[in-house]
Design goal:
Blueprint lengths: L10 H25 L4 H20 L9 H22 L19 H8 L4 H12 L4 H8 L4 H21 L10
Helix pairs in contact: 1-2, 1-3, 2-3, 5-7, 6-7
């Protein structure tokens, strides 16, 4: 029951085929990329790449569709988005040394942790660093960051942590996602 997509022989026929694929498949791809943390622009980029791959494979006879072209494009897009997401995590740079981590132990990856901490913003990163890394007392943090008191600094620290937690929840991450 395999079928082959026909992109036609003329430019007008190809344009019509591409337009039809956009209408049928792009909404599902956009929804999937959004669920996986991407933006609408990310979805457009991923769909364009998926469409090019699909077209090249179709023209060269490399695919015989078992379901339909929309499902095939969605599969390509999922694969491309996962690859892009993995590469963006691996390319995140850190200025902190990692030589204190034991090689034999399974430790959380600093690159992966930093990526999610950065989603809270620069000011939150500085506040969380002061509290957790520099071990400054909350009173000192309040003065250093210009908060009216310890309570304000504590509330802001909580809000920063909630931003990070929300990002992790949205992406459905677990501890294993942070271990290398």
């Amino acid at each position: 029951m395999a079928q082959q997509i026909d992109f036609g022989h003329t430019t007008a026929e190809r344009e019509q085929a591409f337009t039809s694929l956009y209408k049928k498949a792009f909404p599902a791809v956009a929804k999937q990329v959004s669920k996986m943390g991407g933006s609408f622009d990310d979805a457009k980029d991923i769909f364009q790449d998926a469409l090019v791959i699909f077209y090249e494979k179709s023209v060269h006879g490399g695919i015989a569709l078992q379901l339909n072209e929309s499902a095939y494009l969605l599969g390509i897009a999922k694969h491309l988005w996962a690859k892009k997401f993995r590469e963006s995590i691996l390319n995140t740079s850190l200025d902190t040394p990692t030589d204190f981590i034991e090689e034999d132990e399974m430790q959380p990856s600093q690159n992966k942790l930093m990526h999610y901490l950065e989603t809270a913003g620069q000011k939150c990163m500085e506040l969380l660093k002061a509290f957790y890394y520099d071990n400054l007392p909350i009173r000192s943090i309040a003065g250093l960051f210009g908060y009216s008191g310890e309570r304000s600094a504590t509330v802001q620290k909580y809000k920063c942590m909630e931003k990070v937690r929300e990002t992790i929840k949205e992406k459905h991450l677990a501890y294993e996602d942070f271990v290398e």
